[in-house]
Design brief:
Blueprint lengths: L1 H22 L5 H22 L5 H51 L10 H8 L7 H15 L7 H19 L1
Helix pairs in contact: 2-3, 4-6, 5-6
């Protein structure tokens, strides 16, 4: 019995839609088709929700869609005044990003406290008469443990690198 009522309702809906479509000027038919399609989808969702075949959230979304369509059309009328504001904001954001990139290129790394030769030897755990290979080996072992990509941090990695550079420079002098 419920299916028969549903079938009759769909038939009446189709007949009304056809009559309205015939009496509408050709320039407005596309709009009419869209409106009736959205109404039909909303009604189908409500029927499915009432019959327990569609969750109520889905039905609520289907009912809200035509309302959102109308709200968008209303908002669209005001869009010519809003569009310059949106464009201005996007331009300001782009300029800010570009200036930030230029500023980051100009920045110098943060000032590190002066590193003495003794501190460099302690960091790398090498003796006072360590060779170039010993310094490089000690650096390699430490940087593998304390590199930021492996769980270390930038400060420790920079100190390890600075210690290696200082000791290698001291050897070449």
């Amino acid at each position: 019995m419920g299916r028969l009522i549903l079938l009759v309702a769909v038939g009446i809906f189709a007949w009304l839609a056809l009559q309205k479509f015939k009496s509408t000027p050709p320039t407005q038919r596309r709009k009419l088709i869209l409106q009736w399609t959205l109404i039909a989808l909303a009604l189908a969702a409500v029927v499915l929700a009432i019959s327990g075949r569609l969750h109520w959230v889905g039905a609520a979304i289907a009912v809200v869609l035509p309302l959102l369509n109308r709200a968008w059309r209303l908002f669209g009328h005001h869009l010519p005044w809003i569009a310059p504001l949106i464009a201005k904001r996007a331009q300001a954001r782009q300029q800010k990003q570009q200036s930030g990139q230029q500023e980051s290129k100009r920045q110098t790394p943060p000032h590190q406290p002066h590193l003495t030769v003794e501190e460099a030897r302690q960091i790398l755990s090498v003796s006072a008469n360590a060779s170039r290979d010993e310094i490089i080996g000690a650096h390699r072992k430490l940087i593998q443990k304390f590199h930021p990509d492996r769980g270390g941090n930038d400060y420790l990695a920079s100190r390890i690198n600075a210690a290696k550079e200082l000791l290698l420079k001291r050897l070449s002098d």
